[in-house]
Amino acid sequence: MKVLGKVLGIETSCDETAAAVVADGRHLLSNAVASQVSLHARYGGVVPEVASRQHLLAIVPIVERALSGAGATLKDVDAIAVTMGPGLPGSLLVGLNLAKALALSRGLPLVGVNHLEAHPYALWVESGGEPPLPLLCLLVSGGHTELALMHGHGRFQSLGRTRDDAAGEAFDKAARLLGLGYPGGPAIDRASRRGQPHHPLPRAWLPGSHDFSFSGLKTALWRYVRQEGGHPDDLAASFQEAVVEVLAGKAARAAAQHGARAILVAGGVAANRRLRQAVAAASPVPVLFPSPALCTDN
User: 108-164 pLDDT, tens per residue?
Assistant: First the structure.
């Protein structure tokens, strides 16, 4: 479905309550996000029931803020878009139910959006032109790590995915093990800038596959800390290097193998400084990134 005009988008797949107004599919008029990071930090990760209850409190004010930021009201909206999954069921229900109610009350089209496909499209609302196709999409977030070849709008070919932990989940667990706090991705990134990646941690290359695996690396870090010790900053740098080396290497190989004209890195972990450097260095084609503010759920 192609909808021209103003679209109100609603996102509640995990622990960010977000709404935005986009004009003609390309122009971001507003982007309102309420983060729950401080709420879940005490638990070291997202608690689903807590997240869904917080969405209930935040969703209406966030939608109102998005409309106000775009200088619009519901009367100016031509369609409602909403994340339909994947995500936490309780969190998704909050956004879905509000979106259905708004669409029904105004007689507007309701467009369900796949959360994973939405991450790459963050680039479309920022770039001045059309990214080249076929486009290799490396989606790296707290809940997902996937490689997909984008042939056209809505046409994605899955090439590989994580067999266990997502990269962002591995960062969270590593940061908790090293006492660096939550969320783990930014904490590992900050600590790694002060450390050196000299600890020998493994890389799971899974030959003959574009899949990923990070559970063994997480276990190796746990064993290394118990048996060898080391400064948290150096361990963080070593762990981060093990993750980004595999992500960058597999993305580069997949791009070359499938004739991609560019690589797009999206999702929350795409904001990681070292990942951006590593993919750009390894890639045989241009590498595209949304701005850090549009990498996380929004």
Answer: 999 999 999 999 999 988 866 788 999 999 999 989 999 999 999 989 999 999 999
Spatial CB neighbours of 46, under 8 Å, sequence gap ≥ 6: 14, 15, 36, 40, 88, 142
One-letter amino acid at 180 equals L
SS (H, E, C) the chain: CCCCCEEEEEECCCCEEEEEEEECCCEEEEEEEEECHHHHHHHCCCCHHHHHHHHHHHHHHHHHHHHHHCCCCHHHCCEEEEEEECCCHHHHHHHHHHHHHHHHHHCCCEEEEEHHHHHHHCCCCCCCCCCCCCEEEEEECCCCEEEEEEEECCEEEEEEEECCCCHHHHHHHHHHHCCCCCCHHHHHHHHHHHCCCCCCCCCCCCCCCCCECCHHHHHHHHHHHHHCCCCHHHHHHHHHHHHHHHHHHHHHHHHHHHCCCEEEEECHHHHCHHHHHHHHHHCCCCEECCCHHHCCCC
CA 141/CA 120 separation, integer angstroms: 12
Q: What is the pTM of this model?
A: 0.92
Q: pLDDT for 219-273, tens place per residue?
A: 999 999 999 989 999 999 999 999 999 999 999 999 999 999 999 999 999 999 9
Q: Give the Cα-Cα-Cα angle 275, 159, 276 (nearest 5 degrees).
A: 10
Structure tokens given for 18: 């977000």
